[in-house]
Specification:
CATH class: Alpha Beta
Strand content: over 45%
Order of helices and strands: HEEEEHEEEEH
CATH superfamily: Hotdog Thioesterase
Radius of gyration: 15 Å
Structural class: alpha+beta
Family: Belongs to the thioesterase PaaI family.
Mean pLDDT: 93
Shape: globular
CATH topology: Thiol Ester Dehydrase, Chain A
InterPro entries: ACOT13, HotDog_dom_sf, Thioestr_dom
GO molecular function: fatty acyl-CoA hydrolase activity
Organism: Phenylobacterium parvum
Keywords: Hydrolase
CATH architecture: Roll
Number of domains: 1
Helix content: 10-25%
Length: 140
C-alpha cells in the first residue's frame, strides 16, 4: 500500500480524522463535521461536502503512485440528504485513468451508512515538480 501524504492544514480545517483506505485507485477519508461547519437548521454547508468528496477523489488518484499532483478540472456533486454534525465518510474510486487525465467518482456517507451525496470529477495529473515550481513562483 502506498504511503499516505502527511496531514496538512487544509485537511485539519476540513475536520479530517483519518485516512481509512489509500490504495491504487481507491481512497476513503473519515471527517468530523463540526457545528461550526453548519448553516441554518444544523445542516453542514455544501462546500464542505464538496471538499470532502473532492479530497477523497484526489487521494484515490494519488494512491496510484507516481510523482503526480491531481488537479480537479471539473466537479459535479448531487446532494441527496443533509449532512449533520458527526462523523462522515468520503469514499472515492478512479473509474478510468489515462496518462494525464482520470475520471473519478465518490460519495459521502453518514455514520449509519446512508449516502448523503455523490460526485464525479475529471482530474488532471500534473508532475509534482511543475506544480511546486509554479507555487514557488507565485508566492515570490
Amino acid at each position: 500500500m502506498p504511503e499516505a501524504p502527511p496531514l496538512q492544514d487544509l485537511q485539519k480545517t476540513l475536520g479530517q480524522q483519518r485516512l481509512v483506505t489509500f490504495e491504487p485507485g481507491r481512497a476513503a477519508i473519515e471527517y468530523l463535521a463540526g457545528v461550526h461547519m453548519c448553516h441554518s437548521g444544523g445542516v453542514v454547508q455544501g462546500g464542505f461536502i464538496c471538499g470532502w468528496i473532492d479530497a477523497a477523489m484526489a487521494h484515490a488518484a494519488m494512491a496510484g503512485g507516481g510523482d503526480m499532483t491531481p488537479m480537479s478540472l471539473e466537479l459535479k456533486v448531487s446532494f441527496f440528504a443533509p449532512a449533520r454534525p458527526g462523523l462522515v465518510l468520503a469514499e472515492a474510486w478512479i473509474e478510468r485513468a489515462g496518462k494525464s487525465t482520470c475520471f473519478a467518482e465518490g460519495r459521502l456517507l453518514n455514520a449509519a451508512g446512508e449516502v448523503l451525496a455523490k460526485a464525479t470529477s475529471t482530474i488532471r495529473l500534473i508532475p509534482r515538480a511543475k506544480v511546486e515550481a509554479g507555487s514557488k513562483a507565485a508566492m515570490g
